[in-house]
């Protein structure tokens, strides 16, 4: 059996660190173990213990199985390196047929036999929570409270395959370009742009899971804590991996917009030559926050907010994983008090179907907010203890922990409004307000105003924009609009939020209903264009329009032949423009 397994694993290759000869399929994981062992200075035999397989390097299983499980000896799947946090000796990385690997093979075989009998697999290194074939991830623990312990629910239920990924069908749906590339293990350099909780990090984790199964090295850095030296170290290791082992490296940078332009320039030559495949995630517009030279080397993938239907699917998957029962409107629920139920350590947990729908709406397409809100509501009700609730829709008593619509609202505190005062959403909303008033839509104008103020926008900023709008879009159509805008600004300055919100609302509705005129705005734009496009020196001011405060100026002709209009019953005929512009009408945009 051992010889057959070694033949299936490929020809023998000598390890450059320990000089052992081993099958080529195991060289990557073995070399990682040797390097980590030499750095830590903890060579020697691995400790013999029942939990040893969980701390040893593991080989990927056949397709369809989680990469966190131990593969039985002689498996046909390719080797996938796993980087454990705690590594004990070279024997952990030794494949079958190498010195000192007997204990490892025995432990692996024992683990495999244990899995065949239904035992839980050994814990693996931290990583994305994979869904083992079904749509509900398996959470450890017997009770709901135990399943909620540790990591946040949003991280525990993170899907591990594209099949379990919910939403973003326009980018990752069937027959799309990106999905085809990912399934073929041809990951290009990407910039994932989308609002919080739309699945950027989850998609990166799925790519990481697939890459490890195919022998590709995946490194994760966060721009909030990583430095330029950290990036250079990763790139140097990637160069060595590519040169010595022909092994690809994918570098995932979370919040890449936090890197300044000089830090982003570090990636340019290495992404260009393929040393690393860069995947960046950002909530900010890449056009403003990411170096244009780096953008030209990456494909920008725009991820939208998750739909309400997608949010309901994600929440229902979490509810099934936790073992919570959903109270449908016409369904009768009873909890029998037999002997077995009395021995349970926890009562049955119920949640209203309406509460799930409300949570899907209130989280505003943010899966992380929705799952964490569900977790908070469940934990709060479990802490409150066992309750008995009279369900109005069923007319029956439900004995257990009951979660209502009010409980999930309390978990979120308020509706989740996405608004970034310094980001793109700030400019999107003010542009929408401006265009709604210009289009005389008073309802839309009030909506966008409230969207900004409720999101935390500075009311004085909005008031300043209204002063500009009064002259730009209303102008001479209603000259009192400028007075209204200035008064609104002063009122906001005097009393502040929240009292000044009605002042801004009044001004916005007044502007939406006012007649519009861009006559002055267009004419002034024509004047600026005339000045920019003028060839040569600007024409001098005509002598009769010049002031002559001294005798010398009068002798030079300053103010000569000027006609003082108040002395005439009708406007005096005289030219006020330079000779070169005689006859130009800026209000009509042409010469008369």
Number of strands: 13
Largest sheet: 5 strands, parallel
Number of helices: 26
State the distance separating the first and last CA atoms.
Answer: 99 Å
Shape: flat
Secondary structure: helix percent: 40-55%
Kindly estimate the percentage of residues that lie in beta strands according to DSSP: 5-15%
- The largest beta-sheet arranges its strands as 4-5-6-3-7
Q: Helix/strand/pairing class, anyone?
A: alpha/beta
| Radius of gyration (Å) | 35 Å
Q: Quick check: average pLDDT?
A: 76
List low-pLDDT spans: 1-7, 42-136, 334-345, 386-397
Notes on the protein architecture:
This protein is α/β, with parallel strands linked by helices. The chain is 44% helix and 9% strand. The protein has helices at residues 2-9, 27-40, 52-55, 102-116, 144-147, 153-156, 169-172, 177-183, 200-213, 228-245, 261-264, 268-273, 286-289, 292-295, 308-322, 339-342, 353-362, 367-384, 405-412, 424-438, 442-454, 459-474, 480-495, 501-513, 519-533, 551-555, and strands at residues 12-14, 21-23, 190-193, 217-222, 249-254, 277-282, 299-302, 325-327, 349-352, 387-391, 396-403, 584-585, 590-591. It has a five-stranded parallel sheet, with helices on both faces. Strands 8-9-11-10 form a four-stranded mixed sheet.
């Amino acid at each position: 059996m051992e010889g057959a397994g070694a033949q299936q694993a490929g020809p023998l290759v000598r390890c450059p660190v320990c000089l052992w000869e081993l099958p080529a399929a195991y060289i990557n994981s073995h070399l990682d173990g040797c390097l980590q062992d030499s750095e830590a200075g903890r060579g020697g035999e691995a400790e013999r213990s029942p939990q040893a397989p969980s701390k040893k390097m593991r080989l990927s299983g056949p397709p369809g199985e989680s990469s966190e499980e131990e593969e039985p000896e002689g498996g046909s799947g390719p080797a996938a390196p796993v980087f454990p946090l705690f590594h004990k000796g070279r024997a952990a990385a030794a494949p079958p047929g190498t010195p000192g690997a007997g204990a490892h093979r025995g432990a692996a075989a024992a683990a495999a036999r244990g899995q065949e009998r239904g035992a839980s697999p050994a814990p693996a290194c931290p990583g994305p929570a994979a869904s083992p074939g079904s749509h509900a991830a398996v959470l450890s623990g017997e009770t709901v409270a135990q399943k909620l312990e540790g990591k946040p629910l949003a991280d525990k239920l993170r899907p591990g395959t594209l099949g379990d990924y919910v939403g973003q069908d326009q980018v990752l749906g069937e027959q799309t370009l990106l999905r085809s590339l990912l399934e073929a293990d041809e990951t290009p350099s990407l910039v994932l742009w989308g609002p919080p909780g739309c699945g950027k990090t989850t998609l990166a984790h799925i790519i990481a899971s697939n890459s490890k199964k195919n022998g590709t090295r995946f490194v994760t850095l966060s721009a909030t804590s990583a430095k330029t030296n950290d990036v250079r170290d990763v790139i140097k290791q990637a160069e060595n991996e590519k040169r010595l082992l022909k092994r690809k490296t994918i570098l995932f940078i979370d919040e890449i917009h936090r890197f300044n332009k000089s830090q982003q320039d570090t990636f340019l030559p290495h992404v260009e030559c393929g040393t690393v495949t860069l995947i960046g995630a950002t909530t900010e517009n890449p056009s403003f926050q990411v170096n244009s030279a780096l953008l030209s080397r990456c494909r920008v993938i725009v991820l939208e907010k998750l739909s309400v239907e997608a949010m309901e699917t994600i929440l229902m998957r979490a509810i099934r994983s936790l073992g919570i029962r959903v109270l449908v409107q016409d369904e009768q629920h009873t909890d029998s008090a037999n002997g077995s139920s009395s021995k349970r350590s926890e009562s049955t947990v119920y949640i209203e179907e309406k509460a799930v729908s409300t949570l899907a709406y209130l989280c505003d397409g943010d899966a992380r907010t929705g799952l964490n809100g569900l977790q908070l509501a469940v934990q709060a009700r479990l802490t409150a203890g066992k309750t008995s609730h009279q369900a109005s829709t069923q007319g029956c008593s439900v004995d257990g922990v009951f979660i209502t619509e009010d409980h999930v609202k309390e978990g979120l505190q308020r509706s989740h409004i996405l608004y970034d005062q310094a980001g793109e959403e700030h400019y999107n909303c003010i542009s929408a307000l401006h265009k709604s008033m210009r289009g005389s839509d008073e309802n839309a104008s009030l909506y966008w105003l409230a969207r900004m103020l409720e999101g935390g926008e500075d009311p004085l900023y909005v008031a300043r924009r209204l002063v500009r709008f009064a002259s730009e879009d209303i102008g001479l159509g209603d000259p009192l609009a400028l007075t209204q805008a200035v008064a609104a600004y002063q009122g906001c300055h005097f009393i502040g939020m929240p009292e000044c919100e009605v002042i801004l609302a009044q001004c916005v509705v007044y502007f939406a209903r006012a007649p519009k005129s861009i006559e002055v705005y267009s004419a002034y734009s024509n004047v600026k264009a005339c000045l920019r496009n003028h060839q040569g020196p600007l024409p001098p001011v005509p002598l009769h329009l010049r002031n002559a405060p001294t005798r010398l100026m009068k002798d030079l002709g300053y103010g000569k032949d000027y006609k003082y209009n108040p002395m005439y019953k009708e406007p005096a005929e005289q030219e006020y423009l330079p000779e070169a512009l005689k006859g130009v009408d800026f209000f009509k945009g042409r010469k008369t």
